[in-house]
Protein 1
Amino acid sequence: MINVAILGFGVVGSGVAEVLSTNAEKIAQSAAQEIVLKYILDVRDFSESAYKDCFVKDFAVIENDPSVQIVVETIGGVGAAYDFTKRAILAGKSVVTSNKELVATHGHELLELARTKNVNYMFEASVGGGIPIIRPISQCLAANEIFELYGILNGTTNYILTQMIQNGVSFESALRDAQEKGYAEANPSADVKGFDACRKICILASLSFGSQVYPESVPTEGIENISLTDVEFARSAGGKVKLLGRSVMREDGRIACYVAPHIIGENNLLSNVEGVFNGIVVRGNAIGDVMFYGAGAGKLPTASAVVADIIDSSKHMNMRKYIYWEEAKPEMMFDPATIVSRWYIRTSAGLSQAKKVFGKVSVLVSEGAEFETAFITERMSKIEIEALVSGFPVLSLMRVLD
Ligand code: HSE
């Protein structure tokens, strides 16, 4: 029998409790032992909850109970979650989490601590919600040199963009809806401004390339400036606007990561990843392209990944699972602004002025935007396009994913 404690009874934490009880028999079979929810740490009042007997308000109760072998951290953020994770590991307990901010910010340190204490630190749910991606990269694709990863990594923003594209819903109304459905972060600006996707591409890049990539080293743009007009122009080009996190390895072995909205063509594997779904494309030198797809946010999909880690951890109590990356190597990084692509530009200037500045362009036509011009440039780096647009009246600028 394995005793588990959940820290934080929010959307994900309550989902973990629900999956543990609903699927108890199947989980016990997979883990080859019973998994028992012993404690839930939350300062709020849950006296009416079906789990009311499990609640404690003091982490020390869990920390000092040697019968608790796995701690599930679903608090989020890097405050109490960081402190409790370290204390749990130091007390000899394995920790399972969905907390992408903590893994992206302190992953190396916590993995190192887990290694020294011979316990597990597992975070399948931190990227892609319910999609298996951490385990596939660290195990199933371990034979590959991974040279590119890109994906739709945030369910909330993909939900908002899908609502805008398919139903012409305004940004604000789509965001409200995503919040009500429990997809958005406590502070939804982490979704909208791209920080959540940034944390996730950092985790995937750290795992794939073997050294920590910190969020502050990753240029990040969100979707707050994307308008319905951009969505319409993209459609006229046979494309869709998607927020992508991307990590690329150059031939010299250096890597770059960034997060930004892109126009992707309808033939791209990610083009039909809609709503709260996420899709991640991994390019390996033996496998070629492989895509992972599924529910990227939400209570039960995320809980599904957390509980899988609980099961895996329970089966690796004495011989921990090897998941690890080293400290950051800044000399291994290159500037993503040097990556070339075509660019979408929407402007209040006329076409002749645009052609003078950008040379050969493909013009886009959209009904209802007759006072604006939009076009796609030839391939160039971000450094080059930024030099060209300085002094030019740009309303919107986005990479086109080739
Ligand atoms: N807010 C996140 C998202 C939750 O929308 O993708 C899952 O990490």
Protein 2
Amino acid sequence: MLEKLSELEKEFETSLGSLDAQADVLNLKSLYLGKKGKISEILKSLKDVDPETRRTLGPKANEIKSNFQTLINNKLDSIDISVINEKLKESRIDITFTDDLKEKGLFHGGYHPRTLVQREIEDIFLSMGFEVLDGPHIEDEFYNFEALNIPGDHPARDMQDTFWLEDPDSEEGKKHLLRTHTSTIQIRGMLERKPPFRFIAPGTAFRCERTDASHEMVFNQLEGMMVGKNISVSNLIYFMKTILKEIFKTDVKVRLRPGFFPFVEPGFELDIECLICKGKGCSVCKQSGWVELLPCGMVHPNVLKSGGIDPEEYNGFAFGLGSDRLVMMKYGIEDIRHLQSGDLRFNSQFESY
Ligand code: FA5
């Protein structure tokens, strides 16, 4: 009987090893472990053997039974896994579509140059301890003008041609508009934090103006602000130079000249040499050789007050980078209107996913 048991063991293991379908394994299971299976038959036949033999054979037969059960379970598990793997292989989806599109000879996605430059600038400022803020496109007069030291009758309101939104119920000072600059976020940023702080705010600005090679109606700016104690014009110039150096990876020719913005005093225009024509004069720089890129200045005390900050105790600088123009300079794009054209021949020239 013992011999028969060990033969059954060998026979079972060989049969199990050759199977790879779940149904065949289940058949084998009933052949050995079923009610009328080979092991069950042996266990039943123990009642006819002498007690001495039964004492040896009984535990051995039960051990083999449980061993078979374990081997069958393991086998079923491994079949399940290979079935799943097979299914996964068949239904694999290339979520980047890269392989599919390459095979079909189609374009695959890429980052817009605005996104590439914005990410680069954000990384540079984050490394210098600045936060990155966001703000709404639809604003009211308070954030776009009033709080920035541009009262209702101020001629500076005409410096930026505004898209006003129809809102017959709006109160005085609450008329809604599409923000004409990202400086609105200076106010929002100040009201939400206590000095010292420093942040940038990249975003879209809207102006109702005629487009040309360097002007769009919908364009991107990047606001920056630093407020603390004893901040000086040299701090401002240091940050402006650092950003330009990091972005262009080389020294570019810059010129700083006085500039008027009601929200800064003193205010500056920071121009860079036009990198499209190398300063010779072209349609982007209007034949001047220079591109207005980075207006900036020391925050006006009235603006600090609008942001809930005491100008006797704190001061700071702010700037409004023309980030679309920076994109043009970095990539040698000779017309700002390409940025919004949606033309794949343009878009596909930049870094792909
Ligand atoms: C402003 O918008 C101020 N808010 C900037 C500022 C912030 C000054 C903080 C001082 C302190 P300006 O209108 O010059 O300023 O615009 C800033 C920059 O945005 C310009 O130098 C230019 O690079 C870019 N820009 C302005 N108008 C357009 C336009 N229509 N299309 C593309 N870029 C533009």
Protein 3
Amino acid sequence: MVKVVIVGAGGRMGKALIQAVVAKEDTVLYGAVDLPENPNLGKDAGELAGCETQNVALTDNLLNALEGADVLIDFTFHAAVPNNIKIAAEKHCAVVIGTTGLTPEETEVVRKESFKIPVVWAPNMSVGVNLLFALTKKVAEILGPDYDAEIVEMHHRHKQDAPSGTAMRIAESLAEGRKRQLADVACYGRQGITGERPKGEIGIHTLRGGDVIGDHTVIFAGDSERFELTHKASDRGVFANGAVFAASWITDKKPRIYDMQDILGLS
Ligand code: NAD
């Protein structure tokens, strides 16, 4: 059995992850960690997630929780990731990171620690979205810059970062398909007298509201036709199942960063 510790266990994704770990035959919930101010510390993590009792108390001590664990799954907050991965590396524990919005400095810490432990890091763990990344690149290659590309994403009102990590990854796939650097062609929203749309621009637009779990659309707008690729997640279980699948997959891998494209054979 793969012994899994979840950090961010008290959050929206944390609960879905506990359910997914409990449901999967080859994984077991070994630890559940959240912040010291979480009012549920000490309570059974399985019960908190709406599952049967797991005899794992929610704790704020990641170092202790990782003693003897195989994999850490991190769905927390961008600023928490560097410290979490350093602790995991100290314990020789593999890591699956779903947390988005990391700064370049935080990303660099993940990169450095991945020389010591295997890391799966993906802004979106769903099979459908990973297919969307691959299809977006292919369509961008085929249609070229004559088709204006725009990305629209929508998430629930509580989401902390924008654009979503998934939208950024779609934008990177698009730029890659056109053999351009995203930073040279990205346009984040528009306002005022913008002038004509430059050829080759990639528009990225963020909507926030309600309880939307995650919608992403890529629009390729040509003369007289529009081609759209859309993915809509209706349950956090799709991300949680992907992350737990990654947790089983990573245990015997060599240190480096992998993503869901590697796991699903789409890279
Ligand atoms: P959330 O706010 O509901 O949960 C985050 C939890 O992490 C909270 O309980 C918080 O207390 C805890 N936390 C924060 N810092 C911590 C720390 N230092 N130590 C321990 N616990 C800590 O948020 P959420 O909706 O569950 O999303 C979490 C992250 O996952 C976000 O970055 C989100 O964008 C990302 N996400 C990724 C995917 C994916 O497939 N990769 C899917 C959905 C969400």
